[in-house]
Amino acid sequence: RATKEKRFREAAEYWWQWFFGKNLNGISLYRPEDGGVCDGLLPEGRNANRGAESVVAFNLAHLALAEALCAIL
Question: What is the pTM of this model?
Answer without folding.
Answer: 0.77
